[in-house]
């Protein structure tokens, strides 16, 4: 659409893909397959997908995003690649249903760049940033679901504490929840600025001096709750591994410890024998079906940090499929 022209031209500048070269290097052996297909589970503004399409001229990419605005901008940016790119409005835990609809039985690559996208942070009215006053929304898919305001104004105090503790690892969760309940009794919370002020006043002065912006953990927690992010990731990891052909690779970039823990466990489970300890010979059905291709989690180096400050907290992990998943470990296909 013509009115997005400036957005599309600026997309490459607004979104510097995190660890792009390392992602391409890790995916390269799998994407060398003739007719290779990769799924970009978190398309965003299309930076990683553009890198793949340029580097591997024979590869087709299916890009998933729940954010219709991101899909539209990425679709325009990637239009020069023609039918080598297909954008789909979906949450990434629907990966196998999407591939089934497209008639693709298995793929050679899966890429996930988790967390909030540059587009969402930069669009002030979306309410993702504690640095800009905006409506308390935080939905990645602005067409459906609860907003952050709904969570803050309807959850009881105990549930608010649970959300802030579990998803934000916020030690002052009880104080913040109490302040929210007190404030909403006067008037419903509607703006991010109100919430930031409320958080500041709930946290002791000494604690506000360290650990970054005092609202950071609360905003993370609300975003995860609003978008069901950890639940979606928990389903998406086994679904994505099941979508991989033998020899295919999955690369995941996580930005906070809760996500990285889920990724670590999912990949480690596939890379470990499922046989009971002490068996003299491990049957084929219990052999590992993944091989880890990163040692632990890789982080951004100084050059990457200088180029892209948003890479500061990234933890990158990757694995390769060695064989089909044994029947007793295979996840049931999810249906929409």
Automatic annotation (TrEMBL):
Start and end residues of each stretch annotated as Disordered: 299-336
InterPro entries according to UniProt: RsmH (IPR002903), SAM-dep_MeTrfase_MraW_recog (IPR023397), SAM-dependent_MTases_sf (IPR029063)
Family: Belongs to the methyltransferase superfamily. RsmH family.
BP term (GO), one: rRNA base methylation
Subcellular location: Cytoplasm
Organism encoding this protein: Cellulomonas gilvus (strain ATCC 13127 / NRRL B-14078) (Cellvibrio gilvus)
Stated name of the protein: Ribosomal RNA small subunit methyltransferase H
A cellular component term, taken from the record's GO annotations: cytoplasm
A Pfam family: Methyltransf_5
Keywords attached to this entry: Cytoplasm, Methyltransferase, rRNA processing, S-adenosyl-L-methionine, Transferase
Biased composition (Basic and acidic residues): 317-330
Reaction catalysed by this enzyme: cytidine(1402) in 16S rRNA + S-adenosyl-L-methionine = N(4)-methylcytidine(1402) in 16S rRNA + S-adenosyl-L-homocysteine + H(+)
Purpose: Specifically methylates the N4 position of cytidine in position 1402 (C1402) of 16S rRNA.
Residues that coordinate or bind S-adenosyl-L-methionine: 46-48, 65, 92, 113, 120
PANTHER family named in the record: 12S RRNA N4-METHYLCYTIDINE METHYLTRANSFERASE, S-ADENOSYL-METHYLTRANSFERASE MRAW
EC number from the UniProt entry: 2.1.1.199
Keyword S-adenosyl-L-methionine found: yes
One term of GO molecular function: rRNA (cytosine-N4-)-methyltransferase activity
């Amino acid at each position: 659409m013509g009115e997005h022209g400036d957005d599309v031209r600026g997309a490459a500048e607004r979104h510097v893909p995190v660890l792009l070269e390392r992602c391409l290097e890790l995916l390269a052996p799998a994407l060398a397959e003739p007719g290779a297909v990769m799924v970009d589970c978190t398309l965003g503004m299309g930076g990683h997908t553009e890198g793949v399409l340029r580097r591997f001229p024979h590869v087709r990419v299916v890009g998933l995003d729940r954010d219709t605005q991101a899909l539209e901008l990425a679709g325009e940016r990637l239009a020069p690649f023609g039918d080598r790119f297909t954008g789909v409005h979906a949450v990434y835990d629907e990966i196998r249903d999407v591939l089934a609809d497209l008639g693709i039985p298995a793929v050679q690559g899966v890429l996930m760049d988790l967390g909030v996208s540059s587009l969402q942070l930069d669009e002030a009215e979306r309410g993702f940033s504690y640095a800009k006053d905006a409506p308390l929304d935080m939905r990645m898919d602005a067409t459906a679901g609860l907003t952050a305001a709904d969570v803050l104004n309807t959850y009881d105090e105990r549930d608010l504490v649970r959300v802030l503790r579990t998803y934000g690892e916020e030690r002052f969760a009880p104080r913040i929840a109490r302040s929210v309940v007190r404030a909403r009794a006067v008037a419903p919370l509607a703006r991010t600025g109100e919430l930031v002020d409320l958080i500041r006043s709930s946290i002791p002065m000494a604690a506000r001096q360290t650990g970054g912006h005092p609202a950071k953990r609360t905003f993370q927690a609300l975003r995860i709750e609003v978008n069901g992010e950890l639940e979606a990731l928990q389903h998406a990891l086994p679904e994505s591994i099941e979508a991989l052909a033998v020899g295919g690779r999955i690369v995941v970039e996580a930005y906070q410890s809760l996500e990285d823990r889920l990724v670590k466990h999912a990949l480690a489970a596939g890379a470990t024998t499922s046989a009971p300890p002490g068996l003299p010979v491990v049957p084929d059905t219990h052999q590992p079906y993944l091989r880890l291709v990163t040692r632990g989690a890789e982080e951004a180096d100084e050059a990457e940090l200088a180029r892209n400050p948003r890479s500061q907290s990234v933890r990158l992990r990757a694995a390769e499929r060695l064989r089909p998943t044994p029947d007793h470990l295979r996840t049931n296909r999810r249906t929409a």
